[in-house]
């Protein structure tokens, strides 16, 4: 997970493959292809928020792309939150940032120091996520200092018996694979795929 954060920061801040007119790669080594060093990489403390999937540790299905992908929009939103300029091209190099600021200043007829910095407004879900992350962070901290090194089982944070499946101890942990009829009738955007009907046409049609 920490490595994924490193890769994400590199993609959004510095890493770029540059090609010449003849198609040759112009930065084929780590001297010119800039990846974050130990000096640019912040300290990362992974917090695994448990889910109700019993197959993976803590309910996780993977731990690679999950931490990687949110880094890009997070940094872009941080830039927007700071100076009010939306970035649409990565990596966010100083020259690109300078051009965007110049264009924004020209559009609003202000000096760079006069740009308004909007503040992102969070939904109610943000508070719930922060509370849950804090709860799970405390769990990790306590486990790190415990002498008991027995394997962790899903649901331990909630006091579940490791010998009994979590969905048999709490209905909220029941995993539903097939959508209900009500959901099929009014699915949200991601669920609309359940209503898709595949049509194939032969060459003679």
What string gives the helices and strands in order? HHHHHH
**Coarse shape:** extended
Largest sheet: none
- What is the number of beta strands? 0
Total helices: the number is: 6
How is this structure best described in words?
The protein is mainly α and 205 residues long. It has a domain at 2-114: Aldehyde Oxidoreductase, domain 4. The protein has 6 helices and no strands. The longest helix is centred in the middle third of the chain and has 21 residues, at 124-144.
What is shown here, in short?
With 205 residues, this protein is an all-alpha fold. The protein has 6 helices and no strands.
Topology, please?
Layout: H1 2-13, H2 65-68, H3 71-83, H4 94-108, H5 124-144, H6 181-185
Notable features of this structure?
mainly alpha; Aldehyde Oxidoreductase, domain 4
